[in-house]
Protein backbone atom coordinates (compact mmCIF):
# COMPACT_ATOMS: atom_id res chain seq x y z
CA UNK A 1 0.00 0.00 0.00
CA UNK A 2 1.21 3.55 -0.68
CA UNK A 3 2.40 6.03 1.88
CA UNK A 4 1.44 9.60 2.73
CA UNK A 5 2.72 12.41 4.96
CA UNK A 6 1.10 14.88 7.37
CA UNK A 7 2.55 18.15 8.67
CA UNK A 8 1.76 19.23 12.25
CA UNK A 9 2.32 22.61 13.91
CA UNK A 10 1.85 23.80 17.49
CA UNK A 11 2.49 26.88 19.62
CA UNK A 12 5.91 27.09 21.21
CA UNK A 13 6.08 26.95 24.98
CA UNK A 14 7.13 30.12 26.81
CA UNK A 15 8.68 28.08 29.63
CA UNK A 16 12.46 28.60 29.64
CA UNK A 17 13.02 25.01 30.83
CA UNK A 18 11.62 23.52 27.62
CA UNK A 19 14.38 21.91 25.56
CA UNK A 20 12.25 20.35 22.84
CA UNK A 21 9.08 18.59 21.75
CA UNK A 22 8.10 15.01 21.08
CA UNK A 23 5.07 13.94 19.01
CA UNK A 24 3.10 10.84 19.95
CA UNK A 25 0.85 9.31 17.31
CA UNK A 26 -0.95 6.17 16.20
CA UNK A 27 -4.06 4.83 14.53
CA UNK A 28 -6.20 4.61 17.70
CA UNK A 29 -7.31 7.46 19.91
CA UNK A 30 -5.19 7.82 23.07
CA UNK A 31 -3.11 4.77 22.05
CA UNK A 32 0.11 6.10 20.55
CA UNK A 33 2.49 3.52 19.16
CA UNK A 34 4.88 5.92 17.41
CA UNK A 35 6.94 8.93 18.45
CA UNK A 36 8.93 11.63 16.69
CA UNK A 37 11.37 13.95 18.43
CA UNK A 38 10.97 17.38 16.81
CA UNK A 39 13.77 18.97 18.81
CA UNK A 40 13.16 22.69 19.27
CA UNK A 41 11.00 22.94 16.12
CA UNK A 42 7.29 23.65 16.47
CA UNK A 43 6.42 21.98 13.15
CA UNK A 44 7.14 18.49 11.92
CA UNK A 45 6.28 16.44 8.84
CA UNK A 46 5.52 12.80 9.61
CA UNK A 47 6.15 10.47 6.68
CA UNK A 48 5.51 6.81 5.82
CA UNK A 49 1.86 7.02 6.91
CA UNK A 50 -0.53 4.50 5.40
CA UNK A 51 -3.12 5.78 2.92
CA UNK A 52 -6.76 5.67 3.89
CA UNK A 53 -6.03 5.72 7.63
CA UNK A 54 -7.05 7.97 10.52
CA UNK A 55 -4.14 9.07 12.70
CA UNK A 56 -4.24 10.60 16.19
CA UNK A 57 -1.57 13.01 17.48
CA UNK A 58 -0.48 14.64 20.72
CA UNK A 59 2.57 16.71 21.65
CA UNK A 60 4.59 16.91 24.84
CA UNK A 61 7.51 19.16 25.69
CA UNK A 62 10.57 18.00 27.60
CA UNK A 63 13.35 19.55 29.62
CA UNK A 64 17.11 19.13 29.26
CA UNK A 65 16.98 16.48 32.00
CA UNK A 66 14.35 14.48 30.13
CA UNK A 67 11.30 15.39 32.21
CA UNK A 68 8.13 15.50 30.07
CA UNK A 69 4.98 17.56 30.29
CA UNK A 70 1.51 16.01 30.06
CA UNK A 71 0.33 15.39 26.53
CA UNK A 72 -1.48 18.13 24.63
CA UNK A 73 -5.06 17.84 23.50
CA UNK A 74 -5.34 15.13 20.86
CA UNK A 75 -5.89 16.04 17.22
CA UNK A 76 -6.74 13.73 14.38
CA UNK A 77 -6.16 13.73 10.63
CA UNK A 78 -6.94 11.32 7.81
CA UNK A 79 -4.54 10.35 5.07
CA UNK A 80 -5.64 10.11 1.45
CA UNK A 81 -7.77 7.11 0.39
CA UNK A 82 -5.53 4.45 -1.11
CA UNK A 83 -7.80 3.85 -4.11
CA UNK A 84 -6.89 7.26 -5.46
CA UNK A 85 -3.36 7.80 -4.26
CA UNK A 86 -1.54 4.51 -4.59
CA UNK A 87 1.29 5.86 -6.73
CA UNK A 88 2.34 8.82 -8.85
CA UNK A 89 2.95 8.72 -12.60
CA UNK A 90 5.41 10.83 -14.57
CA UNK A 91 3.70 13.32 -16.91
CA UNK A 92 3.59 12.88 -20.67
CA UNK A 93 2.78 15.95 -22.75
CA UNK A 94 -0.95 16.42 -23.47
CA UNK A 95 -2.00 13.05 -22.09
CA UNK A 96 -3.77 12.22 -18.85
CA UNK A 97 -3.57 8.64 -17.67
CA UNK A 98 -5.65 6.93 -15.04
CA UNK A 99 -5.62 3.34 -13.92
CA UNK A 100 -8.41 2.35 -11.56
CA UNK A 101 -8.48 0.24 -9.50
CA UNK A 102 -5.25 -1.60 -10.29
CA UNK A 103 -3.01 0.35 -7.96
CA UNK A 104 -1.78 3.18 -10.16
CA UNK A 105 -2.24 6.92 -9.76
CA UNK A 106 -5.37 8.95 -10.30
CA UNK A 107 -4.07 10.98 -13.22
CA UNK A 108 -0.85 12.97 -13.11
CA UNK A 109 -0.61 14.83 -9.84
CA UNK A 110 1.71 15.69 -7.01
CA UNK A 111 0.96 16.20 -3.32
CA UNK A 112 0.90 19.79 -2.13
CA UNK A 113 -0.12 19.00 1.41
CA UNK A 114 -3.13 16.68 1.38
CA UNK A 115 -6.00 17.35 0.75
CA UNK A 116 -4.54 19.75 -1.82
CA UNK A 117 -3.07 18.11 -4.90
CA UNK A 118 -1.55 19.63 -8.00
CA UNK A 119 -2.97 18.06 -11.16
CA UNK A 120 -0.47 18.53 -13.97
CA UNK A 121 -3.23 19.21 -16.49
CA UNK A 122 -5.87 21.01 -14.43
CA UNK A 123 -3.86 22.79 -11.72
CA UNK A 124 -4.65 22.82 -7.99
CA UNK A 125 -7.46 20.57 -6.79
CA UNK A 126 -8.95 19.97 -3.36
CA UNK A 127 -9.60 16.29 -2.63
CA UNK A 128 -12.65 15.40 -0.51
CA UNK A 129 -13.39 11.84 0.58
CA UNK A 130 -17.03 11.27 -0.46
CA UNK A 131 -17.54 8.74 2.37
CA UNK A 132 -20.04 6.98 0.15
CA UNK A 133 -18.96 3.39 0.78
CA UNK A 134 -17.68 3.22 -2.81
CA UNK A 135 -14.23 4.78 -2.17
CA UNK A 136 -15.59 7.77 -4.08
CA UNK A 137 -14.15 11.27 -4.01
CA UNK A 138 -15.10 14.81 -4.83
CA UNK A 139 -12.49 17.02 -6.48
CA UNK A 140 -12.75 20.80 -6.34
CA UNK A 141 -10.83 22.44 -9.17
CA UNK A 142 -9.34 25.70 -7.88
CA UNK A 143 -8.96 27.35 -11.30
CA UNK A 144 -12.45 26.70 -12.64
CA UNK A 145 -14.31 26.55 -9.34
CA UNK A 146 -15.91 23.30 -10.54
CA UNK A 147 -16.71 20.13 -8.60
CA UNK A 148 -16.15 16.62 -9.92
CA UNK A 149 -16.96 13.16 -8.57
CA UNK A 150 -15.65 9.70 -9.35
CA UNK A 151 -14.92 6.37 -7.73
CA UNK A 152 -13.06 3.20 -8.71
CA UNK A 153 -16.40 1.52 -9.46
CA UNK A 154 -17.45 4.35 -11.80
CA UNK A 155 -14.17 4.55 -13.67
CA UNK A 156 -13.69 5.52 -16.51
CA UNK A 157 -16.41 8.11 -15.83
CA UNK A 158 -15.94 11.38 -13.90
CA UNK A 159 -19.00 13.53 -13.18
CA UNK A 160 -18.76 17.30 -13.74
CA UNK A 161 -21.33 19.11 -11.58
CA UNK A 162 -20.91 22.38 -13.48
CA UNK A 163 -21.76 20.86 -16.86
CA UNK A 164 -24.14 18.25 -15.41
CA UNK A 165 -22.20 15.83 -17.55
CA UNK A 166 -20.03 12.73 -17.34
CA UNK A 167 -16.43 12.98 -18.50
CA UNK A 168 -15.31 9.75 -20.15
CA UNK A 169 -11.72 8.56 -20.01
CA UNK A 170 -11.21 6.21 -22.93
CA UNK A 171 -8.52 3.60 -23.48
CA UNK A 172 -5.37 5.00 -25.03
CA UNK A 173 -4.55 2.77 -28.04
CA UNK A 174 -0.92 3.89 -27.92
CA UNK A 175 -0.49 2.92 -24.28
CA UNK A 176 -2.28 -0.34 -23.35
CA UNK A 177 -3.71 -0.29 -19.85
CA UNK A 178 -3.81 3.50 -19.71
CA UNK A 179 -6.58 5.99 -20.30
CA UNK A 180 -6.72 9.45 -21.79
CA UNK A 181 -9.22 12.31 -21.89
CA UNK A 182 -7.68 14.26 -24.74
CA UNK A 183 -9.82 15.44 -26.36
CA UNK A 184 -12.13 15.55 -23.37
CA UNK A 185 -15.46 13.92 -24.11
CA UNK A 186 -18.48 14.78 -21.94
CA UNK A 187 -22.03 13.53 -22.23
CA UNK A 188 -24.63 16.00 -20.97
CA UNK A 189 -27.65 14.11 -19.65
CA UNK A 190 -29.78 17.25 -19.53
CA UNK A 191 -29.42 18.17 -23.18
CA UNK A 192 -28.65 14.64 -24.36
CA UNK A 193 -25.61 15.88 -26.26
CA UNK A 194 -21.91 15.10 -26.44
CA UNK A 195 -19.52 17.89 -25.45
CA UNK A 196 -15.95 17.93 -26.69
CA UNK A 197 -13.64 20.11 -24.64
Account of the 3D structure:
The chain is 0% helix and 47% strand. It has 197 residues and is mainly β. The protein folds into 2 domains: 3-78, Immunoglobulins (Immunoglobulin-like, Sandwich), CATH 2.60.40.10; 109-196, no CATH class. A 9-stranded antiparallel beta sheet has the order 7-8-9-10-11-12-13-14-15, with no helix packed on it. The radius of gyration is 21 Å and the shape is elongated. The chain starts with a strand and ends with a strand. Mean pLDDT is 75; it is low at 101-105.
Radius of gyration: 21 Å
- The outline comes out as elongated
Total count of domains: 2
Structural class assignment: mainly beta
- Amino- and carboxy-terminal Cα gap: 35 Å
Major sheet: size, sense and barrel closure? 9 strands, antiparallel
Order of helices and strands: EEEEEEEEEEEEEEE
Task: Give the strand tally.
Answer: 15
Q: Beta-strand level of the residues, as a percent range?
A: over 45%
Query: Which percent range fits the helix content?
Result: under 10%
Amino acid sequence: MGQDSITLAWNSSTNSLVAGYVIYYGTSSQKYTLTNNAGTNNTVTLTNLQFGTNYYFAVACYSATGMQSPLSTEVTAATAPAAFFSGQQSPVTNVEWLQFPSGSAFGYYSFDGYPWIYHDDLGYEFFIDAQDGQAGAYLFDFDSGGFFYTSPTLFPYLYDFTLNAWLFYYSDPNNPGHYTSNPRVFYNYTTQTVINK
